[in-house]
Structure formats: structure tokens, C-alpha cells
Design goal:
The protein has helices at 2-6, 19-38, 202-207; strands at 69-77, 87-97, 102-113, 116-131, 135-150, 169-184, 188-200, 220-226, 228-229, 234-245, 248-260, 264-271, 275-283, 288-297, 308-317. It contains three helices and 15 strands. The longest helix is centred in the first third of the chain and has 20 residues, at 19-38. The chain is globular and about 70 Å long. Strands 1-2-3-4-5-6-7-8-10-11-12-13-14-15 form a 14-stranded antiparallel barrel. It is mainly beta and 330 residues long.
Length: 330
């Protein structure tokens, strides 16, 4: 992991009033963000807090799971106050085809972390079969392209003559492919996916001196949720997500959302070792939804950063009130 070993880290053991210590506190946030994006395998896939309302970001098999076209716009500003912290913008559009037997989707994701930029454009295809009275099981495929850039010359490092940092990575095209399974009925859902099962990223792995042949690694997602109809006015939706990568500890998200009068969502979530999240979503009318999430960091990073903020706008096109008898639960 050359970027960790050669990045400039000034010792925290120096007296707190020394000039070097002051430089440490200025450099630490930037160095943390850089190492997190260029080395940590756990940070390669984009993760947001309102994924339970934006299933296409997790799983291509989600495409066309509603009998109408749907679009989502999302913006996330993570760890405010840290230079180089992740900033993510996302667009997702999907809809059904062929009597709802198939679904297609498109996602556009721009992820900016430290000195790196990644713009991913991907298409999704899903084919579904009926299971039981009202259940459906979908098989999904994802294919897309990423334009990846990293301004390595902006890194702070010891060896000024190290060739690794002399040449920036500019708009390297990376082909990406993913796969997923998604099952749901009116009140429950479950899915498993590998958003990037293969990436043609040999040039990036070589430029970053990666220890493996691929820079982008496989991440495995397993998730599920269920709706409990508590009363005429209130529904509860507990949900969970397990994220796994062979080189990192598993991460678990646990969430509980409450729906009031089919218009107002209020929720809370916990991400192991990372954050506590508060969420709110409002169904403005049958077409528009707007949501907001606030992540409060619970790890040691909270000493250096603020909270994370996320805003989402959902648009459902062609939704027929007579045909759709239940609210959009997921």
C-alpha cells in the first residue's frame, strides 16, 4: 500500500502547542481522505443513507420493480469540515417493459473523494418471474463505464522524486459489470448484489501500484425489509443491510422507518462503527417525494469532522392512483 506508507503524517506525540503539531491537525483531515479513497477497499462503492428508497443504487435487479417509471436525484456531502471528504451526486431512472416482466434502468454517479474523481454511467436490465400469489423474483445485470481521475501530484509525501506521484491519472476509462437478485411482494423485499463483479481497470491498478491485478474490488450486499401495518394511519418498516468485502470487517446497517398517513416518513438508522442516522421523507403529491438524511459520526473521526448531509428528490411518472392502491414502501 504505497500511498499510505509514503503519505506525510506528522507525529501526534509532539506537544500540542508546537508548530509541527499545528501542521498535523491541518494535514490529518486531508491525509485521511486521500488514504480512504486511494487505498481503503471498503470505500470504493458509493454508499448513501437513503438507499432503502433508491434500490437501483444497490442492485440492478431492482429495475422496473414498480408498474411505473421512476427517477431519483440524490446529493450527499459526507464528513463536513474535512478537506477532501466524499461528495457524491447520483441520478437513477428505471421503469418496466413487456407487461412488467422486464425492467430497464440508468444510473449516473459522480463521486469525489480527496484527489480522486469517478464518473460512472451504467445501464441496468432485470428479468422477473412470479413467485406465489403476489411475489416476484428478479435477476439483474449492470454494465457501465467509469471515467476515473486522480491528481496524485496534490498528495503530501516524503520522497519528492518518487515516480509514482509524478504522473496524474486522467480520465481512464473503466468498464464495469455487476449482478443482483431481488425479491419482493406488497409488504416485503430482499436482495443480494455485487455492484462491481468485474472491472477492466488494469491501467489504474498499475498506476496506483496495487497489490492485486484489479483496483476496483468486489463488494457484496445482502439486505431485506418488511412493512408492519400498525394502524390505519401508521406503518413501520424495519430494514437491514450487510456489506461485506474480504479485506475489511463486515458493516451492518439497521434502520427503522415509520410512515404516517401514507405521506410522511420518519426514520432512524445505525451503521456499525460509523454513524447514527436520522431520516425524513415527505410525499408531496403522487408524483414528487423529497427526503433528507443527517448522519452523526460515532467513530473517532468525529473529533475532526462534522456531520454528513444527504438530500433526495424522487419523481414517479405515470403512477395511476386507481391502479396503485398502496403507497410506495420501497
Amino acid at each position: 500500500m504505497p500511498l499510505i506508507s509514503k503519505a506525510m503524517w506528522i507525529s501526534a506525540a509532539e506537544p500540542s502547542n508546537s508548530p509541527a503539531s499545528m501542521r498535523y491537525f491541518r494535514i490529518l483531515p486531508f491525509a485521511f481522505a486521500v488514504c480512504g479513497c486511494l487505498v481503503s477497499r471498503a470505500q470504493q462503492e458509493v454508499m448513501v443513507s437513503q438507499y432503502m428508497f433508491n434500490g437501483l443504487f444497490l442492485n440492478p435487479a431492482y429495475a422496473g420493480s414498480h408498474p411505473y417509471a421512476s427517477a431519483s436525484l440524490l446529493y450527499r456531502d459526507q464528513w463536513t469540515g474535512i478537506t477532501g471528504a466524499p461528495v457524491t451526486s447520483m441520478l437513477a431512472v428505471d421503469g418496466p417493459l413487456w407487461n412488467e416482466r422486464m425492467g430497464v434502468g440508468f444510473t449516473l454517479v459522480h463521486d469525489q473523494i480527496g484527489v480522486s474523481r469517478d464518473l460512472e454511467m451504467a445501464g441496468q436490465y432485470a428479468y422477473r418471474i412470479r413467485t406465489g400469489d403476489n411475489g416476484q423474483l428478479a435477476f439483474g445485470l449492470k454494465a457501465g463505464l467509469s471515467l476515473y481521475s486522480a491528481k496524485l501530484s496534490d498528495l503530501v509525501y516524503w520522497d519528492q522524486n518518487d515516480p509514482l506521484y509524478q504522473q496524474n491519472i486522467r480520465n481512464v476509462t473503466v468498464g464495469k459489470f455487476g449482478f443482483g437478485l431481488y425479491w419482493h411482494n406488497d409488504l416485503s423485499y430482499a436482495g443480494i448484489s455485487v455492484p462491481t463483479i468485474y472491472a477492466a481497470d488494469g491501467k489504474i491498478a498499475e498506476a496506483a501500484e496495487s497489490v492485486s491485478d484489479n483496483y476496483f474490488q468486489r463488494h457484496y450486499y445482502l439486505y431485506a425489509g418488511h412493512i408492519f401495518e400498525m394502524s390505519e394511519d401508521v406503518d413501520l418498516k424495519p430494514s437491514g443491510l450487510v456489506k461485506y468485502h474480504p479485506q475489511a470487517p463486515p458493516e451492518v446497517d439497521v434502520n427503522l422507518n415509520a410512515l404516517y398517513r401514507e405521506r410522511f416518513w420518519l426514520g432512524i438508522g445505525y451503521r456499525t462503527g460509523a454513524s447514527v442516522t436520522g431520516m425524513v421523507e415527505y410525499q408531496v403529491n403522487p408524483m414528487f417525494r423529497i427526503g433528507y438524511a443527517y448522519d452523526m459520526t460515532t467513530s473517532a473521526l468525529r473529533r475532526y469532522s462534522g456531520a454528513s448531509h444527504e438530500i433526495m428528490l424522487g419523481i414517479d411518472l405515470g403512477k395511476e392512483p386507481v391502479r396503485i392502491k398502496t403507497p410506495r414502501y420501497f
